[in-house]
Amino acid sequence: MTTYAIGDLHGCHAEFVELLGRLDFDPRRDRLWLTGDLVNRGPESLACLREVMALGEAAVTVLGNHDMHLLAVARGGGSPRAKDTLAATLAARDRETLLDWLQTRPFMVQEDGPGEREIVMTHAGLPPRWSLHAAAERAGELQSRLGGERAGEFLERMYGNEPACWRDDLEGIDRLRHLINVFTRMRFIDAEGCLEFAAKEGLDSAPAGFAPWFQYPRDDDPWLLFGHWAALQGETPERRVCVEALDTGCVWGGELTAMNLASGERFSVPSRQRHD
To answer: pLDDT at position 46, please?
Structure first.
């Protein structure tokens, strides 16, 4: 059995199928870890959702910010944005089945890796001040709320950048919003772990006093997998943790990338998307 981790699909279904073919992926034998953002911006979000869901237990995906946006538009009263490509999914005959499946996906997955090192995957990363135990508890807290009776209220109120800093005494929607932002939107943070959202490009766009989350040390040593940050082009310079960036910008004309978790070998197929 081989496990492959694949970066953000963003509706790039043709590239996903091509990459699985290159890997000779067999769901009876192999497994996939996907970094989230299965949908939006690309042309075939609906096909991506159907493809991953059909793989059953052979595929594990975490939730990304675009996945959460789809759920908010469909079930939380959110409004579509000008650049969204979600119309076909929202109009699909199997829409509710797909949304039910998506809504039960986790925000964090982990398992034993090489030696004593844990492999951990989230969409955006992991705050350096959070232990793995604390992060898992907080991811579970979010997942429980998303699967609860008041999920629609949560989805409607999840948008926003505040509070930017974590506090143990955060409660209610402020606590949930911060957790969503950590797991699905984090890029730059300061030394206290406060989030910054204005800068979305490469490392040279870092505001004064902020750095990429992976340039801060941790007290433990997991192997961290994340997507979300296409501008990194799969690179994590000056990292101070064991980390792999897997979103190589397929939807923006880059590549779709998979990594063999046993060997660390990467495989990529070129994007079929055209962007000015």
So the answer is: 98
